[in-house]
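Case study 2.
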Amino acid sequence: MRSLELGRVLLGLGACVFGAGALGACTTGEGTGEVRSEHLFLRDCHNGPFDLQPDFFATNPFKDTQTIRVQRGDRMEELSDGLSILVTDVAAIRGDDGGEGRLGQDVRIGLPVGVAPPGQVVEYDPDPPPVSMTLYLNDSCHVQNSAIYAIDGTIRFTSLFNGNTRESRAENRLTEAEFTATFADPRELSPGDDHDPALLSVVTGHFRFFFQRGQPAQPFP
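Prediction:
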């Protein structure tokens, strides 16, 4: 994938729906959580301490992936501040694939498979990060670029919804995790690992909520 397509691909991570068949699966759940940074930088948008103070939690399962949304307010993402988390290989993390699972262990966070900052060649990664994150400030910052992306970090799930929208057991509907991740706009980073610290934002957080089947978590046209 060409790096020129980076923005379009990453912005797509925040989408709540993957197709017409998934509309009814993107549902809200009551929960608690926080997303904070001692210094968050998003050019022409935010430069200083940050506290999301989320009160809205949603997840959208699709096959063996989930998109988790931790957000302030229940409006559309395009009008809100929040954190979108794409989890791939849910069964492997939960241990539903016959393996030991990775609940209670640090799971790597990074850019999605096939995406690289401008000027860098997309290299094959035999062990790609199972989790990608997008922090969007569409309510606070009314500018064209109002999102940054996790380029490194770890997340530890103590529980993860199994993806079955008809699940009745509470323990399988619970999602709980804590994370520490470094966010940036990859388009501003120089090739290699020697990045300007001023462009990097360390974000920490945790969340806990139960999946609740119901209406879609955001309106659709």
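The first helix runs from residue 6 to 11.
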